[in-house]
Amino acid sequence: MSTAVLAGRPAAVPLVLPERFERVPVMAAVALLPWLGVLAVCHETPWVVLDLLEFAALLSLDAALRHRRSAAARWAGGAVALLLAGDALADIACAGPGHAILAALVMACCVELPLAAVCVLLGRAVRA
Q1: CA separation for the pair 96, 112 (Å, rounded)
Q2: Which of 18, 45, 56, 91 has a Cα at 20 to 30 A from 2?
Q3: Residue 88 is part of which domain span?
Q4: Average pLDDT in the 90-113 region?
């Protein structure tokens, strides 16, 4: 019995995403490829490595979701979220003043952190 029930509070209802969200990791991985090319041309090796890790983790999450309810989806979802949150933090910390910091904040708030949340929810939705 959950502690919420014992305390007299209703148990929280888990947030479940629609099935169409299961394609988000692979779409995000494909969308990351052009940016990886830009970073490689600019010789931004540390960022290329970080984004390659994100790419691999997104594909791992997609593979775990495709193998219908693999327990690895929880780990892959968490790994993607950790990498994306770290990337957002590093982008903001390394951005210069003015438009660079604004761009980093917009990218973090509108792309990286929402994608991280979706990946965590996808991983949690798996019933192993």
Answers
A1: 19
A2: 18
A3: 23-124
A4: 95
HSE value, Cβ hemisphere, 13 Å, CA-based, for 111: 15
Beta-carbon neighbour count of residue 36 at 10 Å?
16
**DSSP assignment string, 83-126:** HHHHHHHHHHHH--TTHHHHHHHHHIIIIIHHHHHHHHHHHHT-
pLDDT of residue 4: 55
Q: How many domains does the chain have?
A: 1
Q: Is 1 a domain residue?
A: no
The mean pLDDT of 88-98, rounded to a whole number, is 94
**8 Å CB contact between 22 and 84:** no
Average pLDDT over residues 95-101: 93
The span from the CA of 28 to the CA of 111, in Å, is: 10
